[in-house]
Every structure is written in structure tokens, then in C-alpha cells.
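Table S2 (continued). Query chain:
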Amino acid sequence: MASIIFFDTEIDPKTGKILDIGAVRDDGVIFHRNSIHDFSGFLQGTEFVCGHNVLSHDMKYVGKAMKTAGIDGSNVIDTLYLSPLMFPKKPYHSLLKDDKLLADELSNPLNDSEKARELFDSECTAFNAIDEDLKEIYYSLLENTAEFGAFFRYAGYRGHSSRESGSVSLFMRSLQNMFRPDNSAETADKIKRRFREEICINADISGMVRKYPIGLAYCLALIDALDKSPSVKSVTPPWVLHNYPEVEQLMFRLRNSPCLEGCPFCNKAFDIHAGLKEWFGFGS
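Corresponding output:
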């Protein structure tokens, strides 16, 4: 398993000054100081870093220190983005409240780092429990995104068809992505097979794969959860709808817009006679 450090920062919102940094290495060694220079030294020899909501916040303040320590800028794992994928139904993970970690103390980066580690361990366990078809779909959709690519590399998951080494540099990955053939149709076919009974297979899934891979992944996670537990009520976290507003439209097109051609899902979900019988007890 690759080496990893979990971290968090406390930043003065007015000045942008780093007030405190907390981190815990995968072997349990901790760091708790406000020195960015010392933090860079602590990071030396580590391949991955991980935290909660770090891509849009903490990295602005510690990105240079990580580069100085020799950490590939694409090897940042953010537990925030993984959470709706791994825990799509209510109640969500006990450490989460919307986009925040529930910590024992206020403004304690070391404590938050340890909570991020606990959450990440749970996310890894949840990922390992997912069936292989759904893992492959998630990988096909998300492997080249900043939000998820590092997770797959850390987990050593490269899908059934990929032979790419997990140690390929950011520059080489960029080149590979530039010349990689469009696999949206192949990914769409995987989705149609896996979710044949849960979504409209005549929707433009290939277009969704190309334009909205993350939003589509979140939709599929929720659909899968609801299919397995129909009685469970689940609501997409507000921060997801804020960052990926396409989720609502994608869900509508996948589940609430009957196709003219007819498909297994639409034929069942929009059957008027079946609906009358289910809701009002009317016979056919």
C-alpha cells in the first residue's frame, strides 16, 4: 500500500495566514505546528495526502509545501467528494454533516486529520464492498478527474481494461488523456447493463458520460442505494447540488422522463394501470 498522510489546516479568514497545521501519517506519527516549512519536511517521502474538503480550501495554502516535498500535485485525495459516492443514503456516515466533518473539538487540525483518516478508512471499506460492475463504472467515469483519480491510484484499482501503472507521473497522465480514445459509448453500455431495470436506457447516457461524469456517478450511487433499500429516504447533500447542479436534471432524465421507444424501466415505472393498482387498489 502506498504511503499517505492525512492533514488539515486552520487559516485566518481575513489574512489567509496559516494559524495551525495538523497531520497524521499512516504509521501513526503526528504533526501539529504552524510552520509550513516543518510541514513540508514532515511530508518528505510520502506519496499521497488526504483530507476533507482540501482540494478547494487547504491546497491553496499548502500546495507549494507539498510540491517542495516532492508530492505529485495530482495525488491529493479528498474525502468530501468520495462520501456521496460511498454513503449515498441517509443516514450518511456518522462523521459527516453536509460538507463538514463532525469533530470533537473546534479548530483543532490534528483532531480533524484523525477524523479524516477514520472517514477515509470507512470509504475504502465501502468501496471494497461494491460489486465489480459498479466499481468498473465508477472507475470509467472518474479515473481522470482531480476529485477521484488519486483515490483509484491509491487503492490500486485500475479497472478490468486498464493496464496503466499507478506510478505514472502527472505529466504522463496528461499526455495519455490527450490521446486516449473516447470510451463514452463503452461506459454507457456498462451503465445500461448494470442499471437496466433502474434507469431509462434510451436516455442519452453517452452524452452524460462525456459532459457530466461526476454528476452522473453521484446519480448512479443514489439510484443503486434506493434500489437496494426502497424504504430508505435519501436526499442528495446540498453541497453536491451546489457544486454539481446538473445532478437534478440528470436524475430527471434517467428516472422521470419516459422514453417513447419503451424500455424495461419506463414500461414498469410509468405503467398507468400498475400505478392505479399500487396507489389506489384499482384492478386492471
